[in-house]
Fold this protein.
Amino acid sequence: MLPPLTPEEQSHHLRLAARLREALVAAGGWLSFERFMELALYAPGLGYYSAGSVKLGAGGDFVTAPEVSDLFSRCIARQCAAVLMHTGGEILELGAGTGRMAAAVLTELAAQRVLPARYAILEVSADLAQRQRERLAHLPQALRERVVWLERLPEQPLHGVMLANEVADALPCRRFRCDADGIRELGVVLDALSAERTTASAPIRFREGAVAADASLAGACDEILAGLPEPLPAGYTSELCLRIAPWIGALGACLARGLLLLCDYGLPRRHYYHPQRATGTLRCHYKHLAHDDPYVNLGVQDITAWVDFSRVAEAALAAGLEVSGFATQAAFLLGLGVEVLVTEAGADIERIRLAGEARRLLMPEEMGEAFKMMALARGLDIPLAGFALQDLRHLL
Ligand SMILES: C[S@@+](CC[C@H](N)C(=O)[O-])C[C@H]1O[C@@H](n2cnc3c(N)ncnc32)[C@H](O)[C@@H]1O
C-alpha cells in the first residue's frame, strides 16, 4: 500500500539499515526499540530528523497543527501573552519544526504588543534548524533579531513560556508485551535471512524480537498495571516512554517562573492502556500515509507513539511544577477565541479559508480530541483562558 521509495530514498534507507545493523551486532544481536527509534530518527546525518527529507507539510510526510493553520499559533500566542504580561522574560520553543509556529507566534505577539525579550529555539535536528533559519529570515527585523538558536537548555533560570508541540511523541519509547508468564520487552533483531547474509548487497531486514523485561521496564509496567481498573489481556502490546521524566525534569529545572505548554496526541493512562487498545499506539508516517511498520522506509519515515499524559503529570509534580491545565486541543483553542479570529477576517474568501482550517483543528474526528494541551506552571497564579472551558485533570 505504501508508495515505492525514490532511488535517493532507497539509498538513504540502505545506509541507515547498515548503521542499525552495526549497532545491533555490537549490542549482541538485540536492540531495545528505544535505541532503534533513537537511531532511526536521530542518528547523525542518517536519522529521519537529522537528514534532509522534507518531513513536515504538504510536500512531506505529515502535518502538525501549526502547519494546518496559523490560527493554532495565534491562539498559543494569546496564551503566551497572558503569561508574559505577568512574568516578562522570554519564550523557548522546543523542536520548532519548520519554524512556522515561531513566525506566527511572534507576529501575533507583536500585534498584541507583548513581545518576549527573545524567542529561543532548541532544536535537535540540524536540518530543521536550517529550515527554521531560512523561514524566520523573512520576519521583520524587529522580530527576527529576537530569535536565537540554543544548543542546550539555558543555564540561566527562565522566566516566561516554554512551548513543545508534538515533541514528546518524538521521544524514543520502549515497547512491551504482557505474556501469561510476565512482561516481555519488544526490541529489534535481524530477520533470519539478514543474519545469515553473506554478500554486501544482500538486503538487511529487521523484525521484532522479545526478551525478558529488565528491571526498569518491568518496574514501570508493574506501576502501570497496578493503577488500571482491570488487568490487561495476554498478548497486549503497547509503548512506554521512560524518557519523558528526565525530559520534563530538565525543563522544570530550567523554568524559574512561568508556563510549560505541551501539545501532543495522547491520553491519560487509564485510557492509553485500555484493554481494547491492544496493539499500542506506535505509528509511522510516510507521504501522508500512516501505518505501523517501523522496519520499512528507514530514515525516510517518521515514527511516533502517543503520549501518556499521566506520566507527564507525574514527572511535572516530581520536578516541583504544578499541573495547571489539561484539555483537548479543541477546548483550548475555543477558550482562546479561535472562532473570533475566524469571524474577524476581513474578506469573505479569507473567512471561508480560515473556517475550513479551524474545522480541521477543532473537529473530534480530525485534530480536536486526540490532541491534548497540558499546562505545567511554576509561580504562576493567573487564570489560563486556554483551560477555562474544560478541565480533564481528574482523568490523570
Ligand atoms: C513532529 S516534529 C514537530 C515540529 C513542530 N513542533 C510542529 O509542530 O510542527 C518533532 C520536532 O521535535 C524535535 N525534537 C525531537 N526531540 C527533541 C528534543 N529532545 N528537544 C528538542 N527538540 C526535539 C524534532 O527535531 C522536530 O523538530
User: Anything to note?
Assistant: Residues 49, 56, 64, 66-67, 94-97, 122-125, 128, 165-167, 170 surround S-adenosylmethionine (CB under 6 Å). The mean pLDDT is 95. Residues 7-26 form the longest helix (20 residues).
